[in-house]
Amino acid sequence: MSRIESTVTSVWQAGVMSTGTAEIEYAEAGQADLPSFEELLECEDPELLREPLRRWLLKGDHRESASFMYQVWLKAGGEPRLIRESLTEWLTRHAGAENANFIYRAWLAATGEIEVVRDAIGVWLAKHGQVEAAQYVYKAWLDAGGEHELVRMPLVKWVKLHREKPVASYVYYAWLRAGGDRRILQAHIRAWLNAHTSGESDAHQIYESWLHSGGEPAYVAKPLRRWLSDHPDFEATGSVCGAWLRASGEPKVVVKAAVRWLGTHAQSVIASFFYEAWLDTGGERDLVATPIKLWLEEHGESPNASFVYQAWLNNGGETGLVREPLCEWLRVNGNARAANFTYPAWLKAGGETELVEEPLCEWLRVNGNARAASFTYCAWLKASGKTELVREPIRGWLGKHGTDPHASFVIQAWLEAGGEPAAVEEELRAWMNIHGKSPAAWYLRRTWIKATG
């Protein structure tokens, strides 16, 4: 058994944060130039740290300064279960220690297990909940899905003390993203936004989380106008404009900023989120037609391009603009689940069935029994696609989902497209036995009678 004496952090030997001489034992003999424990900590390799940590844990050292060891292990990606018991004991003694906030943040980020630290965080916030650094604990707790009530009262007090400081943005963002009550912070949030309309602040996160969480667009319109004016080329500006539109904000608030932003970001990956939001909320297609064409030339084969194709086609865009890049997208992604919404978008927009026939056959082979495939079957049949191409896939789908309420749409589409009634007769009878008194049943009976003469 070789031994290395090195000057290291004495947490290893005595559990205090001073420097001293520590002896480290290694299981394998005869190794030269083995690293010191200090060097092991710096390398942050859990495989190298595991055995030294185990031996340290056996000492049962629960001094306040031992928190450093837990932090290093969690930060290195080590298994939380190895320290859970020791950490729990440490918390019973030092839950309110000022440096415990590092433990709470590391534990929640590594595990998301709120139960282990819930009571201890309550103790810590009662003592330190108003210090500026408490922001990290509030954010870690909310990001991990912790209940709002544990932090609500101290968080509101903290906000009153720090509401316009740059660091407050992290608390506002975490609270809104976690679904916290907007009303208790809305005045503070608007004050913060008014104070941070210029400079490279994190205001974009606040605007987006406010709008995504259902906040009233008009409430933040005034500071948003100024922020957009000062950030025409900021990458996140497009996402903010998209969030504004999704929240039914007045398009005129963001349209000028959006046009300027497209001047430099039209072909960036994130521009897809703006294109989708603009089109889905009724924005003028002409404004984004050329930018989308250029974007598809660069990103048209990417999986997320499906959302751009769908938004363009579902909102009246000409099929010619996307025909060529869509062919390439289907070649690469034709079997993807996301294609289930891309095929209907093309077909409903009047696109040629011949363009998607070959990839659709393969998609049906892979995904034809998925419940959501009903949208593709209906779109294909309503676009006058060949019934023989989907005959067997539809029979397989009905065999699995034939009594689902929405199966009537597939059966009806089949019959209206001229498919032979015998192919779906058995499934139709089974569906009628369950849903025969539903409004959809009346339309299905009428279609059946028309199809069978």
The percent of residues in helical segments reads 55-70%
* Overall number of strands: 2
Series of secondary-structure elements, N-terminal to C-terminal: EEHHHHHHHHHHHHHHHHHHHHHHHHH
The largest β sheet comes out as:
2 strands, antiparallel
Q: What does the average pLDDT come to?
A: 89
Query: Beta-strand level of the residues, as a percent range?
Result: under 5%
Overall geometry comes to globular
Q: Counting H and I runs of at least 4 residues, what is the number of helices?
A: 25
Textual characterization of the structure:
With 453 residues, the protein is mainly alpha-helical. The model is unreliable at 1-35 (pLDDT under 50). The protein has a two-stranded antiparallel sheet with strand order 1-2. It contains 25 helices and two strands. The protein has helices at 37-43, 46-58, 67-75, 81-94, 100-111, 118-128, 134-143, 148-162, 168-177, 186-195, 203-212, 221-230, 237-246, 251-265, 271-280, 285-299, 305-314, 319-333, 339-348, 353-367, 373-382, 387-401, 407-416, 425-435, 439-452, and strands at 3-9, 19-25. It has a domain at 390-453.
